[in-house]
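Re: the request from the purification team.
They wanted to know what the chain is likely to look like in 3D before they choose a buffer screen. I agreed to run a prediction and write the result into the notebook, where they can find it.
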Amino acid sequence: MSESPVYLTQSGLDALQEELAYLVGERRQQIAQQIAEAKAEGDLRENAGYDEAKNAQAFVEGRIRELKVKIHNAHIIDDTQIPDDQVALGRSVVVRENGYDDEEIYTIVGSTETDPSNGRISNESPIGKALIGRMAGDVVRVEAPAGEIEFEIVRVE
């Protein structure tokens, strides 16, 4: 079964690779040491340290599998074939909500790199979907839980 592509910036891929290297190397060794120390204490049936270390091991192994799949299916965002003034993955877009003077900046990224509090929104989010492919000067309407929101694209960076 083929996995879906994971759209990443180069820095996003680098961060996933760094996390994987840390988990496979240093973190696995730390957990193995914790398990060995807990086993040395004797009875494992009521050993909270052992249970905690085994839970950490399960979490880390799951995260390693997840990272390997994401890295294997990574597609680096390449916006060089798209006009500079068009919203695309990896680009930042300055928008102004209809009726307001304040501008907001969003960077459109794949879902793996989403960080809304830092203006990094997914191309799969309602706003991201509405902005992709649009140009500076376009007016975009987005359905939100509170109702429809209308944005003007001020510029694409």
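For the purification team: The helical segments are 10-40, 48-72, 126-131.
Please add any questions underneath this entry.
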